[in-house]
Amino acid sequence: MEFLITLWQQFLTTLPLFVLILLGYIAVRAGRWQKTVTDSVTKFTFYIAFPIMLFQIMSHFSEHSEIDANLLLVFFGGSFIVFALGCFIAVKFFKLNGSQSTMFAMGGIYTNTVFVGIPIIKMLLGEKAIPIVAIIVIFNALILWTLATVSIEFVQMGKLSTKGFIKAFKNVAKNPIIIGIFAGIVVNYVHIPLPFFINQATKMVSDMTAPLSLIVLGMGLAEYKIRDDLPITIAISVLKLFILPIVTYILAIVVGLPLLELQVIVLLSSVSIAINCYMMARQFEVLQGPIASSLLISTALSSVTTPLILSIMLQFA
Fold first, then answer.
1. Coil, strand, or helix at residue 111?
2. Helices 244-255 and 70-94 meet at what angle, rounded to 10?
3. pLDDT tens column, 35-68
4. How far apart are alpha carbons 162 and 167 in whole angstroms?
5. Contact (Cβ atoms closer than 8 angstroms) between residue 286 and residue 152
6. 127-167 pLDDT, tens per residue?
7. Cα 195–chain centre separation
8. Considering only CA atoms, which of 52, 9, 11 is closest in space to residue 212?
9. Which residues pair with 178 in a beta bridge?
10. CA separation (Å) from 217 to 26, 102, 239?
11. Is the pTM of this model over 0.85?
């Protein structure tokens, strides 16, 4: 009974986040807005709001406790394990080819760290947890884009090259999210004093970014539909919402991560698939339908599974 009460409380806590996603979805579906509206708001959120929010938080990075480097080992170690499992399942049970199995496995590990992860972590664990998320964000795009690029290149060409590594690194280096994080770190450690009006302005943008990002996510999801290959879609969603957080939790316990870092990376692992994964599928022209469907299904299901996973962790804390 105590567990059910905790689960219900966590569900009610996260419910406003998914209400905002639904609001964005309905606004596009019912309002029949043109795609340019969604594109413009998404562009503002990604290129301006999120970089400013992360800059504001990371510029005060030293005010938070030290980050354990083992969290990277746990988060990405779990991702690599599930990636290998995903490739095996794709080949063994769905008879997918090399490129398709790579994208299938990528759907099982590519977490929506920015548009969903940060708002959920901020609401459930507080702003003190955001620097931990920022560390994950810095490496997430670089590692996963490199992994996908190299894997598909190897399958298609039969060999590896430095071209894939360099291309992935350049794309990440130009990412405004990464620029905002590193700019904030520089301001923090060089001890550059920010004028009061700049600090207040960035704080105002920071406060509005999380809810705005969820509305934008809902607007983006309205463009996708549940398509064919439903068994593949379900398998991807199960990998992402259940298998990845379980593997991450086990690794975190084995390594002995502090409680806050354990909660952050397990919650991050439990949220829905990133829209970037669909962009990746479009770039490589592989499994576009199942990945788009997985975006919708994993986002809807995570409204229940993420509070469930947090409640279970609290029972063992």
1. strand
2. 140
3. 788 888 888 887 888 888 878 877 876 655 566 7
4. 9
5. yes
6. 888 888 888 877 776 677 667 767 766 666 555 566 666 76
7. 32
8. 52
9. none
10. 12, 25, 21
11. no
pLDDT in tens, 222-263: 877 777 688 999 999 999 999 999 999 999 999 999 988 999
- Residues near 219 by beta carbon (within 8 Å), at least 6 away in sequence: 24, 25, 27, 28, 33, 37, 38, 41, 42
Radius of gyration of the CA atoms of the chain, in A: 19
Distance CA 108, CA 106 (A): 5
Q: Which among 219, 200, 61 has a CA at the least distance from the CA of 130?
A: 61
CB atoms near residue 146 (< 10 Å): 18
Helix axes of 176-190 and 50-58: crossing angle, nearest 10 degrees:
20
Q: Read off the tokens for 245.
A: 């957080």
CA angle 294, 11, 255 (to 5 degrees): 75
User: Which tokens sit at 264?
Assistant: 């952050």
Greatest distance between any 2 Cα atoms in the chain? 59
pLDDT of residue 124: 82
Number of residues assigned to the chain: 317
Q: Which one-letter amino acid corresponds to residue 21?
A: I
Are 130 and 59 a contacting pair, CB within 8 Å? Answer: no
Residue whose structure tokens are 């966590």: 10
Q: In whole angstroms, give the CA distance from residue 6 to residue 14.
A: 12
**H/E element, 80:** helix 70-94
Q: Identify the helix (H) or strand (E) that includes residue 20.
A: helix 2-31
Question: Residue 111 forms beta bridges with which residues?
Answer: 273
Terminal-residue alpha carbon distance, the chain? 17
Q: What gap in Å lies between CA 212 and CA 94, rounded to an integer?
A: 38
Cα four-point dihedral sign 301, 307, 309, 311: negative
Nearest to 225 by CA among 291, 306, 316: 291
Return d(Cα 71, Cα 51) in angstroms, integer: 23
